[in-house]
Specification:
CATH topology: DHBP synthase
Strand order of the largest sheet: 4-5-3-6-2-1-7
Number of domains: 1
Radius of gyration: 16 Å
Structural class: alpha/beta
Shape: globular
CATH superfamily: DHBP synthase
Oligomer: single chain
């Protein structure tokens, strides 16, 4: 199926530590996403300049619990975006530069890192993913799911794609950007269907 071939292209992009665009049908917004495994300052800089939304690291909630990072309370929202405390790696400098944020990401996903190695609040926003995209079909889960399908550490960096007009990028702009960067576009829904099919075939 064409839909699944696009998901497979996104998996291959992640395997090569390249970007992909994930569009959410429910939010009508798209994020620029890349695996946390192998993240570089150049990747963070590209996100900041091309996407210009909020750069976040999506991780399984279990990992955030291991690091003693608390979930932020949600008030006056219909949908609970799973934000957690922001962090900086201890000793990285101000924490805001692409180099510092890439270093913080690498520290967060390092299995040897302990809670005391991360200062809070910081400049890296964290999102906690549910166990599966089938459980919650958000950008957070989609990014983590795609990392897992690519055989990588289950954590990815994502940033909303904002147009020069100040609105979120529309379909035409997303296609143009994907063509310019030579990266795939998938939807959260397509990835969820692929994940269900993958689990069914695996069983």
């Amino acid at each position: 199926m064409k839909m699944f071939s696009r998901v497979e292209a996104a998996i291959k992009a992640f395997e090569s530590r390249r970007f992909c665009i994930i569009f959410s049908e429910s939010e009508q917004e798209a994020d620029l996403c890349i695996p946390a495994d192998g993240i570089t300052a150049a990747g963070i800089l590209t996100m900041a300049r091309v996407a210009s939304g909020l750069i976040c690291l999506a991780l399984p909630k279990k990992r955030l619990e291991e690091l003693g990072i608390d979930k932020l309370p949600a008030r006056y929202r219909a949908h609970d975006t799973p934000f957690y405390e922001s962090v900086d790696a201890v000793g990285v400098g101000s924490g805001v530069s692409p180099k510092d944020r890439a270093a913080t990401i690498r520290k967060v996903i390092d299995g040897e890192t302990r809670p005391s190695d991360l200062s809070r609040p910081g400049h890296l926003m964290l999102l906690g993913a549910c166990d599966s995209i089938i459980e919650r079909d958000g950008h957070t889960e989609a990014t983590v799911e795609l990392c897992q399908l690519a055989g990588l550490y289950p954590g990815g960096v994502l940033c909303e794609l904002v147009s020069d007009t100040g609105d979120m990028m529309n379909a035409k702009e997303l296609k143009a950007l994907a063509g310019k960067l030579r990266i795939p576009i998938i939807t959260v829904g397509a990835l969820a269907k692929f994940a269900r099919s993958f689990l069914k075939n695996k069983a």
